[in-house]
Amino acid sequence: MSNNASVPTSASNTPIAIDDDESPLETNSDPSLLPITSRHTSAVWSDFKRKRVGDVIKAECNHCSKLLAGGSKAGTTHLKDHIKICPKRVCQDLRQTRMFGTKKNLNDKNDTMTLAPYEFHQEDGRRDLAEMIILHEYPISMVEHIGFRKYSKTLQPGFKVPSRNTTRKDIMKRYELEKENVATLLRKAKGKIALTTDMWTADNQRKGYMAVTSHFIDNTWKLQSRIIRFLYVPAPHTAEVLADALKESIQSWNLDLRLSSITVDNCSTNDAMMEILKGVFPYGSLLLR
């Protein structure tokens, strides 16, 4: 027996040598089809069949029937590239699918499991992790807890939990993005901007913070409220110190010419702060002067 076996053809009496034909793994009654042998170890051959076209061997896609080079010297890289973009291949990769439980109707007690395409992205996981820490005020150090890392690995083995420093950078990146979104919203608002401000003291730190919130009507006539600053104000909290902090907040957002009003708590320090600010900002910009 020779390694190069010959196969008779219906179109010609000339035999064609079948390359690497060892131990056929599958056969077909179609005389133009060639067997997948033990030497075709690539997983890509589950999506292709070997076919004789004239005097050459082609690889025919099982999904769209496109013919590609299929000889032993052609390799399989071009076949893998085709599978990624094949328009008729529904599921790109079984490893990139997951099961979903669905019900045909609300009264149906039996769940129906279906496979749906799924693609994992590390960046999406990092973004959602940063958002979770922000929303629930979790400590950033939680990403280094053994229990959290084990839990994350169980949910998604492909997700690499970032370090504390990387998570901090992701949070600051989210802050800059949200800040730009608020700035864009304020720029598009055609009316004036009203501000409210209040002091807040952290019990565990005994430090004072100033919160500044903007209020305005957007172009769809909806009331919008956005916090534009939450900054630490060093003691003592005198009228001058508070006035400087509020002035810096207003000017950093370019709102000094768009103010309609500033609302504060009823206390003597705030009264003195307002007297200072009235001498700083243009007299005509305020709604009631």
From TrEMBL:
<protein>
    <recommendedName>
        <fullName>BED-type domain-containing protein</fullName>
    </recommendedName>
</protein>
<dbReference type="GO" id="GO:0003677">
    <property type="term" value="F:DNA binding"/>
</dbReference>
<dbReference type="InterPro" id="IPR052035">
    <property type="entry name" value="ZnF_BED_domain_contain"/>
</dbReference>
<keyword id="KW-0862">Zinc</keyword>
<keyword id="KW-0805">Transcription regulation</keyword>
<dbReference type="GO" id="GO:0008270">
    <property type="term" value="F:zinc ion binding"/>
</dbReference>
<feature type="domain" description="BED-type">
    <location>
        <begin position="39"/>
        <end position="98"/>
    </location>
</feature>
<dbReference type="InterPro" id="IPR003656">
    <property type="entry name" value="Znf_BED"/>
</dbReference>
<keyword id="KW-0863">Zinc-finger</keyword>
<keyword id="KW-0479">Metal-binding</keyword>
<dbReference type="InterPro" id="IPR036236">
    <property type="entry name" value="Znf_C2H2_sf"/>
</dbReference>
<feature type="region of interest" description="Disordered">
    <location>
        <begin position="1"/>
        <end position="34"/>
    </location>
</feature>
<keyword id="KW-0804">Transcription</keyword>
<feature type="compositionally biased region" description="Polar residues">
    <location>
        <begin position="1"/>
        <end position="15"/>
    </location>
</feature>
<dbReference type="InterPro" id="IPR012337">
    <property type="entry name" value="RNaseH-like_sf"/>
</dbReference>
